[in-house]
Amino acid sequence: MTMLAKGLLLATLLPAVFADVQFTSPAAGATIAAGKPITVGWKDSGDGVALTDLSTYTLFLCAGGNDAASFIQLYPINAQGKFSTGNQASATVSSTLGGPDKNAYFLKMQSVGAKGAQVINYSDRFSFSGMTGTFPPEVAAGIKKVSGTEGPPSSEVEAPEAAGGAQDGEAVSYAAQTGLIKYAPMLTPPGTKITKKEPSPRYPSSKVTIAKTFLPTPKQTTTMTASNTYAPAQSRPFQAPAASQPQDDMQKFLHRWRD
């Protein structure tokens, strides 16, 4: 087998990796003092979705293992970030947020593109000195399974077209959408006339199943509603304003018996 054929075979066997945001700080294996500012930096990795195609992000400090069920989001370093403001963010982490375990911490950036595509990137692991808190049992167990400084899988991308979105004229119902971002249709404009004499349901009734156990945590992060494409007509009221009413008790009495 030629080297080219081997390379093509390897490319088909490996999962797709989208490395859009590459964290530059903190460095892998670094130790940061609790109670002092932590500075997070990143750059465009040159692969996958470019930073110029991303608009907003949320940045969290996380701790735990590499599986989704074994780590938690501890603290929002920037809950409403914009890529247009730069490639750096900072925050002060309290010493009570977590434990002193080595390489227990990493960063999670959840980015949203202009067309709704969503990217999730994770940083390498690092430590905090002076931490006095504790972790939940499942998080502590996940940390013990980790070796080295590599964080969770670097990123995942979910585009609206691949996730059953209802964008750009697509008619996928809200309940049938499975992506990280759900899309709702434009709000229905009110009618100009009342034509119905009797009320009736707008949609048929649906079957309801009562949950008997705890349901899984929804993975959807937000709902985007289509913008209005209509402009309501406005006009001035032509009815004359009501006459001024009497204010004191005597005027009210005389006004009452005026007829």
Helix content: 10-25%
How are the strands of the biggest sheet laid out side by side? 5-4-7-8-10
User: How does the major sheet shape up?
Assistant: 5 strands, antiparallel
Strand content: 25-35%
Cα separation of the termini:
109 Å
How many beta strands in the DSSP annotation?
A: 12
Low-confidence stretches: 1-19, 160-171
- Measured on Cα atoms, how large is the radius of gyration? 28 Å
Overall geometric form: elongated
How large is the count of helical segments?
3
Element pattern in H and E: HEEEEEEEEEHEEEH
pLDDT averaged over residues:
77
Structural class label = mainly beta
Features:
259 residues, mainly beta, three-stranded antiparallel beta sheet, 10% helix, 28% strand, elongated
Describe this structure in words.
With 259 residues, the protein is mainly beta. It has helices spanning 3-13, 137-144, 249-256, and strands at residues 21-25, 31-33, 37-44, 54-64, 71-82, 88-92, 105-113, 118-122, 127-129, 155-158, 181-184, 222-225. The protein is built from three helices and twelve strands. The strands form four sheets. A five-stranded antiparallel beta sheet has the order 5-4-7-8-10. A three-stranded antiparallel beta sheet has the order 1-3-6, with no helix packed on it.
